[in-house]
Write a structure and sequence with these properties.
With about 525 residues, the protein is an alpha+beta fold. It has 19 helices and 20 strands. It starts with a helix and ends in a 9-residue tail after the last helix.
Length: about 525
Amino acid sequence: MPDRIATVSRRALCAKTLCILFVILFMQGCAQLPPHNAPPLSYAFDRPDETRLGRQVQPHLPDQSGYSGFYIQDAGRQAFLQRAALIEAAEQSIDAQYYIWNSDVSGSYLARRLLVAADRGVRVRLLLDDVNLDGRDTLLAALDQHPNIEISIYNPFAIRSGIGKWLNFISDFQRLNQRMHNKTFVVDGALGIMGGRNIGDEYFDLHPQVNFRDRDVLIAGPVVADLTANFDAFWNSRSSYLMSQLEPDAAQELGLSTELEQIRAAASDGTGLTRVPPQDSASALEYISQILPALVWAEGELVFDSPTVYGQDVTDSPQRSAQALYQLVEEAGKEILVESAYLILGDDQLDILRQVKARGVRVLALTNSLASNDLTTNHAGYARRRGAMLANGLELYELRPDAEACLSWIAMPDFCRSGSVGLHAKSAVFDRKALYIGSFNINLRSIYLNSETVLVIHSAQLAERLAQDIEAAMTPENSWMVTREAGGQLFWSAGEEQFWTHEPATGFWRRFKSGLFSLLPMEKYL
């Protein structure tokens, strides 16, 4: 009898729990965004010649009409310093669009300097994806109170934080699963930056445990106007909500002005930075002047996806950025080198790989190993398709977290002795004549779901340089080569004498979790 009573009690408890969960999910499903009262359309500043940055670029413009200048940012510290210098040099406008903007050392520093720029009259527009903004609405609302700062949130959650936000994700999955993965930064319409880096310590060689090998590009010339067109398209989209719409009562909150004053008081604080950037326009312009002669001028094209939130009826069609890459793959005649943090090919992409190999094109790819990947779930989706990618002719390399090249990649004292390096770059080289750099991972989420931005550059000089960088990262001291026997067994090797039959430098539990996740057909959502 006691056992029967206990069983009935457990069933009642389970039924009660399920009922509560159903009610919570129902309530989250009823949560609504505020009305989208479209503000007046806003557009980027488009007279760079009226600014010091624009006049600084002018002497470097080449005779070839339509060419743009490109400077590849490989080192994280360099990428941070260039962004910081551009903020100090700004006179008219700063437009920044990011998937992630962390509140760590680098993210907080750059946000404080944006406020300083706004104080001297620069118009600042900050467009952020909502998926990583938990707990920061008060800070963003405070900045948004400044007359020269506007903050907009892309595809926002109706529930702003906590567990409710993620229950909202479940109940409104179709809409909220599509995210703005773009990363662009434009100052005075004169210089822009785009590529793979978000704003955060791990992207700028400042994280004590894990730093990323990443890549983006400083751009001058006509492509900058394309970057601003991309920004304006997302800013004016119905998928973007002004912070003032999401937090309509923020203006009445007494603490916001105090918070702004605290930000101003700490604006020059460089604690935690390995090098304090220029903090006035003269030194910033001097810093930038040393970079401009190194620009490589070539034909370039920016491709960006539509900011529309996709419905179920269109998520099976490759987006513009994917179509641009398909075209480059189709045109390749000898070799394709790929570097992608996350690498997942679906059946359609495997068919393309098979056709490419059949016409004699060699395809090599570098991605994260399980040991270097920051997301076990994403690695599991890759592992689920890894055997098929190898079977269809892909030559595959996985980054080692203890890569020897860390010493040249990561400009942080003593980091490489105890920290680990991961891959976050998204790049490719085609026949050493053309290259792309962008926010686009070679995975199904980038192909079908997220909005992405891709820069295609037709330059043998830059293509050869990037090819050599990728090849260097594929050497045994930096990566493990993955091969597959006819029976399907996978092997990892580092040179001729080191072999593994399971993923190296990982414990049983992590391999078990990856294997468990890889049983689930969720590759499209990773």
